[in-house]
Design a protein that fits this description.
Order of helices and strands: HHHHEEH
Helix content: 40-55%
Distance between the termini: 53 Å
Oligomer: single chain
Number of helices: 5
Bound molecules: zinc ion
Shape: globular
Mean pLDDT: 87
Strand order of the largest sheet: 1-2
CATH architecture of one domain: Orthogonal Bundle
Largest sheet: 2 strands, antiparallel
CATH topology of one domain: DNA Binding (I), subunit A
Strand content: 5-15%
Length: about 110
């Protein structure tokens, strides 16, 4: 494995660099950072396909503006800091301004 890496360093790093630019990487990265926070607080988690969540409703949940996957922020409807779970049901597609505005405040449940 190590020898393989030494011999293929260039192409390995190239591949990694390209992978980091993909939507799949961004999705996984978001998933794992939220997962970590939710685990620490014991709120409940599940495996989430963010691309799937996005495709279900590709616009901001709060202001309704259509969003490209790259501009999407996934918002926890009930913030993890307030006991919300890291599950598909607690996720909303959000634009950056709406997500910032909301922060860790809780919206009333509908
Ligand atoms: Zn918005």
């Amino acid at each position: 494995m190590r020898t393989y890496y030494e011999n293929n360093k260039e192409s390995h790093n190239e591949t990694q660099k390209k992978y980091r630019l993909t939507d799949q990487f961004k999705a996984n990265h978001r998933h794992h950072s939220a997962l970590r926070r939710a685990r620490i607080l014991n709120n409940g988690t599940e495996k989430i396909d963010f691309i799937d969540v996005y495709k279900t409703d590709p616009k901001c949940f709060y202001c309704g503006i259509p969003l490209l996957f790259n501009d999407v922020e996934f918002d926890h409807y009930i913030p993890i800091a307030k006991g919300g779970s890291h599950t598909k049901n607690n996720l909303r597609v959000s634009c950056a301004p709406c997500n910032r505005r909301k922060g860790a405040m809780s919206y009333q449940m509908v």
